[in-house]
């Protein structure tokens, strides 16, 4: 093929050959299609082949539309594979010719053009085609409707595929207003494409719409009465997206929106109804708003959702519901869903509430409706909506739902009955309390429905019963359990494959709930499962493996009986031998064998060696393939890493089950080197499984790891990222296992480990298993590395106790609590003494909060200070804690510059550690120790020496604080906790007498100060969230409401923050105000206060009075200050402004800016002023660069000064 780029012309003979090739490609003959494909592959080697394809698409108007469109689709595939290698002139030709066809009269050609355009943008970026969007926008201005539709279609596809490439300045500021204009187009297709395009943008970036949101909403609402189906669908999608990004803009209209969505959820077009139904799921993401908005509408919404859960006539046909017995029909390959192995997560199986997965997916294993379809549809969406909404409204659902259930469950129409059973299952979790009185009637009904003549009813009944297994297991076996087990086992062998699948899944759930209660029935269970191996087709075998593995997990070593071992292992090993190394059925089989090996312990030894050898071979082969793919990416694809993961997990199961019996196999293999390679893999799942195996081998045969443990520890430390939950979890668990074997040798790694472990421990709403493992590992580190860990007790003690309070007595729990007790012995006070200037003050109720130059937060009881001012040297803080999690003296600067209160029990503070503001709890430390007591009380039978440790801690604390304080403190305890501690620990909560011999307050040689602050049990200052945005240190904070505060920074700005979003909603650049002078030292804003509509602020800049809302300067304070003086603090109160800075003077100004008076303080620089309004004792406190806090009853003399260095002088 020949030709020049810009003047390219096709050679007629070659053009005709390509056209004929396109015609032949549509032949039904397989051999013809194969020949065509081979020829296409050959032609793709020639760059000019793309020119022929685009020429046919755009120029051959008389050619068949199917051939022209096919040329475009082949061109799209060529672009995807070859675009970067095509000469520039050919790329330019393809672009120009493609756009020429954008107004073609045939919709198929216009759509194909849009596909080609977006494919080019995806592969080269929008920046490489700068004229594209301006050209398309220009086409939208045309009067040619076909040109408009073609251009809008291309824009929509670009937005769908590449909205993240579009920037406000270059693209969106022009494009979005243009799209909004078409919301009112007379052509429905243009309206729909315009709304769809904006939705695609909104899905990935919301900021470009912020400034025009009101206009956007107005245009959207105008479409409510639009008669076009696609417009209605896109409108529903837009409103759903806005719930996440701009809920505040929708709140006032939520009532109308809910009514509209109710109507659209019942739309005759299922696609539109599905989009509307998504709205309920999105609204449920904000439970408080959802409850307020939907409560009045529940009587309408619930019946609509239940109706939408019925199978349609088309569903019934597609599911072949008339075929009751299809168990002998082989599965088609497309019927078998892709199965992705979930890498092993190390869990604490001793929790009181087992079965909580780290990242549960509602739809993943609980496929609502069990309709054998992976496609998300209206039925599934409605059931999921009913589920999550019932979790929000709980029993408020039932007055409307119960009559519906009564009608549907017993309906003669099996389709209606089936939907009622589905609804009953969907609300199981949310309405369990209210449903419980009805379950004695409903459970037998459901069990009987397992024999229904319709397979779809039997299958959904299996699913619904699985949702109520917890109730069944809680009651006498003769009531429900035996009958349910019998019927489920019968359904596992049902003649219908869909019922088999549902029954197997339901039985796996029953196994998880029943655990050891299954042991008496193991013979019948195993006989059924083994028979299922003989009957099941390929798809259901995958679920059968899961049921067998779950059985092993649930009954554990009870499977280790000769008759059970032989029965179970025979079909499993037969499958093991029949599968090749690259057969994906190995995934579930290996998972199953991992659980079985763990349960059988030494009984698995006869099968161990071939399994171990094959797994190590799989790992080695896969790692070699990974290396080859990395070195030669153009020649080799990356291998399927699931083989790697499942092999690691099976070896982990072998190590856990066989313990030290695995030693000879490890010794004669390269498994340690393979684990090391896997621990460096880019795949999180591979690392996750490698860490699980590392931990299990540490327990089973640590001596094989010891020579290279120094290589593993940095890798484990680098994987403590809680955003990768399971990787982090397994890494922490492995660290704990290594720590138990490594002893004092672990000390060198503690400084690098602790910050991450403490961060994970305090993570809000962290996964239960992750928190349990983190707590156990911290406790285990405390056994041999107590001196390194004990100083940090205040930063994790409460979260630690909460994480382990529900753990059953066992070795892991014991080791963790031993470590905790040792750390409390070393650090009973839990905090360091202070001697540093106070930079920030704030009063909240009776508590005066202080922040100092060393980054510490501490607090005094204001009533005690003012009532006992003559005995101030006896005053002690009620708590002390590191504000930024940094040990004092280890890093500078990190002073606390400002503290503000937020609501009744929250603080916000900022300083010089970084440029962020932190939101923290402000609770008193005496609220902390109760959690330690609760954790101690969680033990049923601690070892005698551990029980003695607990007793000493409790008695020591009681003796130290005295009788009156102890009674007041323990009065907060729940009665069961008091009674349990009294019984277990010699009346520990009774009278003060009877302390442990050796003296209270000296637990194992504890430091002076005793246990008045056991373990530094401090909650005040625990960070809840962090607000980032300032480019300089945060100097001052002011609270406006529970949800809004204002900050001032060294970057010369004042920012307004929303605590609900952790985002800045406004920015005022104080440093840009020309009327204010600077001191020549910078642009920082240090002093800030707000009263009503007025704001005072200053720093390196003159102090000025501003209108807060508009950010307008009113007046400048008339200050006779030194040219280099810096204003550090200002307070507004009763028409006056108090100000301090790099001077010993406290200044008073009027709102007009006049200087009223000045008084001298104890400091040479004033950092903080607080107007304390404790009833009957109003005064002003001032702190600065001394160790004194001055208290003024009136602004003329110092009433008294409080020293903050007393703790250090003890």
From TrEMBL:
Name this polypeptide is given: Transportin-1
Keywords assigned: Cytoplasm, Nucleus, Protein transport, Repeat, Transport, WD repeat
Residue ranges constituting the Importin N-terminal domain according to the UniProt record: 36-104
WD repeats by residue range: 1027-1067
Segments of this protein annotated with the region Disordered: 343-363
GO CC term, one of those recorded: cytoplasm
InterPro entries according to UniProt: ARM-like (IPR011989), ARM-type_fold (IPR016024), IMB1_TNPO1-like_TPR (IPR058584), Importin-beta_N (IPR001494), Importin_beta (IPR040122), WD40/YVTN_repeat-like_dom_sf (IPR015943), WD40_repeat_dom_sf (IPR036322), WD40_rpt (IPR001680)
Main location: cytoplasm
Pfam families, A to Z: HEAT_EZ, IBN_N, TPR_IMB1, WD40
Gene Ontology MF term list: small GTPase binding
GO annotation, biological process: protein import into nucleus
Gene name for this UniProt entry: TNPO1
Subcellular location per the Swiss-Prot or TrEMBL entry: Cytoplasm; Nucleus
Family of the protein in this entry: Belongs to the importin beta family. Importin beta-2 subfamily.
Lineage: Eukaryota, Metazoa, Ecdysozoa, Nematoda, Chromadorea
